[in-house]
Amino acid sequence: MEKKQFQAESKRLLEMMINSIYTQKEIFLRELISNASDAIDKMYYKALTDDSIVFDKDNYYIKVIADKENRTLTIRDTGIGMTAEELESHLGVIAKSGSLAFKKENEAKDGHNIIGQFGVGFYSAFMVADVVTVISRAVGSDQAYKWESSGADGYTIESAEKAEVGTDIILKIKENTEEESYDEYLDEYRLKAIIKKYSDFIRYPIKMDVTTRKLKEGTENEYEDVKEEQRINSMVPIWRKNRSELTDEDYERFYMEKRYGFDKPLKHIHISADGAVVYQAILFIPENIPFDYYTKEYEKGLELYANGVLIMNKCPDLLPDYFSFVKGMVDSESLSLNISREMLQHDRQLKLIAKNIASKIKNQLQSMLKNERDKYEQFFQSFGRQLKFGVYSDFGMNKDVLQDLLLFTSSKEKKLVTLDEYVSRMPEEQKYIYYASGESNERIEKLPQTELVLEKGYEILYFTEDIDEFAIKMIGKYKDKEFKSVSSGDLGIEADEKGSSTDAENEENKELFDYMKNLLEGKVKNVRASKRLRSHPVCLTTEGDITIEMEKILNAMPNNPNVKAEKVLEINVNHDVFQSLKKAFAEDKEKLNLYTTLLYNQALLIEGLPLQDPVEFTNDVCKIMV
């Protein structure tokens, strides 16, 4: 019997397949089961046009048979089978898929589809087998044929005996090595686990003889191990059922079964798309944040199936980073799959699915915000930070998508509000959206810089997370209203009768303020009269784009850029302390030096900034007490 050689390119590809293309050897079983499912699909299509074939679904199945003694694993199907010519053309040329031509001739009309029988995936068998034997009998033929190969050295084809139409693929499993245990591919529990993981939703039964412990007949307490044929796969995936058939409990059970999390999902999204791209998806918005969510170890992505066959555990391209908290799966028959079904071509279909999914997630979040505010706020406490990162990243490219989903605590409402809610109740004369930054709401409420804004009856948004100001800077404007920190140099608020003319005060006390500015050289850009302070004697404000909170955050980073905000020391000219400053300026410059340093350090403490010399500060306090 003549041994035939693989084509040169095919031989090289087969060597690659055996050694490197697949990252996990276990997926060989997924590939062979997918091929078996395709073969049964072909029989179904043939029955549609051939009256001599009756397609009774009960007669079609896939069986996995492990023989530890002879070290063989058989994958049997009752599908269409192959002639000698088809064995030659499908298995002699790597990646020649009989299903591709067949599909073009028999376009699916009822949701059935064919992934690609005996494409490259078949050769993954050589990762675990020394010898691969294929015995196949084609429908309409009494003669069976055997194809056999030990790998890249070639293959043989000869006549064989087979009682039923269909195909047996028999793998002679490799012996164990120091690096690899191949015994696991003969272990029924391991095989069951692989089938459940990758092929649970194949539409035909996948059967195995499974060991069960049963009471021995005629005894009361003696047990024996009995082999029973069982169906391993569930066959009908939840995502292919009508939403009307399913309850919240069904979705929760699926969430738990898939180990998406130990919590309960806050919301689920069930998508059945049948347009430019056909796919089904079930997505979950988790209740709690995963413990590793903000670490490098966290992997985003959705499970990706093609016709019920798991292709990737986590496909990151299906989710934008700002929605990386979403869990779930996508099953599509529209995706183009490349060499191993493990590596997706990033084609138009995948991008369309990803775009659609992002839109569905946003719509669901907006619906929660509008109709289930408590539930949305619970979600935002867990994942709001990620939405803010989404606004800031990619140079603000996604700000329009995300800005209406943001929440901040309001000085007026004392609860979380949206930007839209803030703007909708702004007085007509209010120029800006005001915000204040600090470590907590409680600390922000005590900031001296808030006094004038609050006195005018304007609402302030409290920014307590390090990302808040950076995200807002990226948004720039919301509904034509700019954002303005209460510590900004110009608040855009006209002085009223309660406040004096700061221009006049600055001019009148120019020498005093210049003296203090020179004393604090390198620490502040300017010293001036304040129109924002009411009860407090002093505060720090900033000029330019960098605020004090941003300075703190940037300088806390590992590669400290040593960024400094341009600080201004503002003095309340209506406070008793100012009279002491004027008196000291006229009579005692040493005392003025002490007062100036004390006020500056007080302003630093109010902002939560470190004192350059705490010991000196305490000594200065003691000096004014003596």
Annotate the secondary structure layout.
Elements: H1 8-21, H2 27-49, E1 62-67, E2 72-77, H3 84-91, H4 98-105, E3 129-137, E4 144-149, E5 155-160, E6 166-173, H5 188-199, E7 206-215, E8 223-231, H6 248-257, E9 265-274, E10 278-286, E11 302-306, E12 309-315, E13 327-332, H7 348-371, H8 373-392, H9 399-402, E14 408-410, E15 416-417, H10 419-424, E16 433-437, H11 441-445, H12 451-455, E17 460-463, H13 468-475, E18 477-478, E19 481-485, H14 502-508, H15 510-519, E20 526-529, E21 538-543, H16 548-555, E22 566-571, H17 576-587, H18 589-607, H19 614-625
Parallel strand pairs: 1-7, 11-13, 16-17, 16-19, 20-22
Antiparallel strand pairs: 1-2, 2-6, 3-4, 3-6, 4-5, 7-8, 9-10, 10-13, 11-12, 14-15, 14-17, 18-19, 21-22
What would you note in describing this structure?
It is built from 19 helices and 22 strands. It is α+β, with helices and mostly antiparallel strands and 626 residues long. The strands form four sheets. An eight-stranded mixed beta sheet has the order 5-4-3-6-2-1-7-8, with helices on one face. Strand 11 (302-306) and strand 12 (309-315) form a beta hairpin. It is elongated, with a radius of gyration of 36 Å. The termini are far apart.
